[in-house]
Amino acid sequence: MAEESATSYLEREIFPVLLPGLEEMLHVASTTEKRKRFNSLDYLVEYLYKHNPRKDGRDEITLAKIPFVEEEWKKNPRPPLPPSATLSEDEARLIIQAAYRGYRTRCREDVQLFREWQKGRRKEINAVKVIQREWRRHREEKDDSKTSEMNMNQENENV
């Protein structure tokens, strides 16, 4: 049997599966929402795994359940997707608007005065808590010393 050329091997074994996968990947990528992250390599790996002509029963498997992908992700876990890849345009718009409205509100003079007052009030409340805690600790130490004195007096009386 003569040795087969690389070109004929590619045309016979690889291209019949790879080319439809590339076409489908391009179609899916072009219809995916702009803000969503589309990982073409992930898509192609899953497509080729599912459409391997030598293996059956892989239609329902997802990328994360492919054995060699699972093994690789155990060794090298993927970082979580950034919010820009997971939020819809409406959700992103709301977050940006809320941040901007909060910024504009915090810039107002009356709000700044109120925040300064709150900061001072928190310091006062914290000071009161510290004084109360230290007073309780002092009272407990005083009570403990009285208790130990009484115990010593009772021991001396018993002797």
TrEMBL record:
Residues 137-147 have a biased composition (Basic and acidic residues). Residues 137-159 are annotated as: Disordered. InterPro entries: IQ_motif_EF-hand-BS (IPR000048), IQCK (IPR043408). It comes from Amphimedon queenslandica. This is Uncharacterized protein. It holds the Pfam family IQ. Residues 148-159 have a biased composition (Polar residues).
